[in-house]
Amino acid sequence: MKVKHKRNPTKTMIVGSVSIGSKHPIVVQSMCTTHTRDAKATAQQAVQLSDAGAGIVRIAVDSKRDAEALPYIRDHCDANLSVDLQENYRVAKAVAPYVDKIRYNPGHLYHHEKKKSVEDKVGFLVDVAAAHDCAMRVGVNSGSVDPDKKNVFKKEDAISPMVASALEHCELMDKIGFDQFCVSLKSSHPDRVIEANRRFAELRPDVPLHLGVTEAGMPPDGIIKTRIAFEQLFAAGIGDTIRVSLTLPAAKKHEEVHAGLQIIEDFKSGRVRSVVRFDPNRLNIISCPSCSRVENEAFIDLAKQVKEITDDVKEEAITIAVMGCRVNGPGETDDADLGLWCGPNFVNLKKGEEKLGAYRYDAILPRLRREVDALILERQ
Q1: Which residues pair with 61 in a beta bridge?
Q2: Do 246 and 133 share a domain, yes or no?
Q3: At what angle do helices 159-176 and 118-131 cross, to 10 degrees?
Q4: Residue 97's closest CA among 118, 71, 122?
Q5: Domain that holds residue 133
Q6: In 3-state terms, what secondary structure has residue 94?
């Protein structure tokens, strides 16, 4: 029997051919893993994800070559495209004519033109979006929060800076008079995702929310973590678009979409496991979803191998983060007990915020295991 799903009374946002928010169905998203500059491969994967049921397909743009691929991609797929601006917000002007939505991270606006105010930068993005009929997403990520916001709160408070940053950028949009935007507040910790979105939704119930647990990891664990967060938020009427961020090879990336659709259908049918919360007292392996920012696809196999070599310590309360790129890797690994962020040729190993060194892909696993064993002894 279907469960009546109460939703927050948000405004409606239009992204290409889909309507988001209010009483419209929850939209499932995914993100291309191909290098965007490989226009043919990216267009093919965008079609694959759209055909699987993704209402929006996100593409990362980090360079002029990436931007130059957008016209071909747009001409060869009918998907509703969202461009994920990385650290250079100014590239929005080159890509906006070919996409339906622009996503930016408030924490990344500080990397370019540091003398220009945040309000001016957001104003630039809004002008570009409005001129090309693009929606926008304010994408707040726990691993790359606005440094000014982080400095206001205690170091152990990871949620307040995220919410404060999201609220500030909503106010900037309101001041400018632009209402075609949504917000996301993401973390690799399901509990933080739940709390951040609940707090934001209480203060701004009018703003559509995109939900996601970043670096959820490999199936089935990654799906379980995400499912728990989504179910608890759905039950509170929160969530208008979702992404299940899984570590998958390119050929299987559509499984993200299937997982998202299944979670929605299960929730509506009452098949939930919300009473089961993500257990902070057991081994937690975080690995980011493979996307076009990954500089060495060996990262995917590495994430699997990390799980294999730690199978015997599943009862230990240790978090290991395996990140695939330089954009989110350094920040996202700060909160983990042990973190690996992967470059083209080397894997950078960290213990919390402490850097332990860079190791070849064929040498990192024994070194990681030694750190795991040392950490267990240290706690004993």
Answers
A1: 85
A2: yes
A3: 60
A4: 71
A5: 13-268
A6: helix
β partners of residue 138: 104, 183
| C-beta of residue 202 within 8 angstroms of C-beta of residue 156 | no
Residue 328: the pLDDT is 62
Domain tally, the chain: 2
49 Cβ neighbours under 8 A, 6+ residues apart = 30, 32, 57, 79, 253, 254, 256, 257
Quote the pTM value: 0.79
The 10 Å Cβ neighbour count of residue 23 is 10
- Helices marked H in the chain — which ranges? 39-52, 64-75, 92-95, 118-131, 147-150, 159-176, 190-203, 221-235, 254-268, 298-309, 329-332, 364-379
Residue 275 lies in a domain: no
Q: Are strands 241-243 and 181-186 parallel, antiparallel or unpaired?
A: unpaired
Give Cα 280 to chain centroid, integer Å. Answer: 21
Q: Report which residue type is found at 49.
A: L
**Model pLDDT for residues 315-346, shown as the tens digit of each residue:** 898 888 888 777 666 766 777 899 888 888 88
* Rounded-to-10 torsion of CA 125, 137, 133, 36: 80
Q: pLDDT tens digits, residue range 49-64?
A: 999 999 999 999 988 9
**pLDDT recorded at residue 294:** 66
For residues 288 and 159, membership in a common domain is answered with no
